[in-house]
Fold this sequence. Notes:
By secondary structure, this protein is of the alpha+beta class. The chain has helices at 3-15, 61-68, 139-142, 162-171, 173-199, 202-219, 233-240, 244-256, 272-277, 283-288, 290-299; strands at 27-32, 38-42, 58-59, 83-88, 93-95, 103-109, 112-117, 123-127, 134-135, 148-151, 155-161, 226-228, 260-263, 266-269. A hairpin with a 2-residue loop joins strand 13 and strand 14. The protein is globular, with a radius of gyration of 21 Å.
Amino acid sequence: MNELERKTSDIEETHEGTEPHVANSKMLTVQNNGNGNQKTQGVADIRRSVPDTRVKPWANLQDVCELLGIPLDPSIPNEELQLHYLRYRVGQFIYAVGQPFEMLYVVSTGFLKTVMIGDDGNEQVLSFPMKGDLLGIDGIHLHHYSSEAVALSDCTVIAIPFKALNAVGKSYPALAHAMYGIISRELKLETAMVAMLGSLSAEARVARFIAFLSDRFGDMGYSSKKFNLRMTRKEIGSYLGMQLETVSRTMSSLAAMGFISVDQRAIEILDIQALRTLRRLPPSQGRSDKRNGTRRAQSD
């Protein structure tokens, strides 16, 4: 077996080998629940996490660095890491709660959500990753994933074996430093979200979220003025710490004030500056749209 064939075999066994970890059961052991006992969380058939379609087979460090927006140290051979593009369909898991940590993932195309599963079985949305985002860092500490990542649309990701990345980082400290910077960036975004949830009104949270999506779509080369929401209003509410009805009512209010236009999941930005600076809707506006927003929520 030559070197390329060996690397191919290693990567296929590492990623597609996620299935043997759970092949005999659909239950995964999750982290300690705080009182010394372990909680077992049922997971929708994790074997769905193995993608059924592959795009171009190989990725390299240049592909990863371009997606993450970091410079590639010219001293690092581009073939130092042979990585794999993987394609997932809507609803498939990239990884699940309790699954042994082996990979980091960089989103190449498409949209996903990451969620935690509460003691009551309900999901809490943590983020909506898209092109250029890094997934799986929550698995580094405890050596298993404490969240799960699910495709909201057909998507492609680059799978990065963490042990191999560490090995390259030891030889090329500049790469390791850049990756630490990306991990820090992800943590900073999470901190900013916590601060927003604690300081802004419900209306302002929705407004900032729409402005955030506008910026991200623009960064990816799409229209920042018109785009489709890939997530449901219920998922937005989970992410922003709001009820479904409040999300729908607030979107109706923002549309009534001329900040956005809404047609189901289609959004058109009419006043981006207002979305960035809104603190709270006028009380009369919120009351006038309450019934309308509830009706929209029921049909979402």
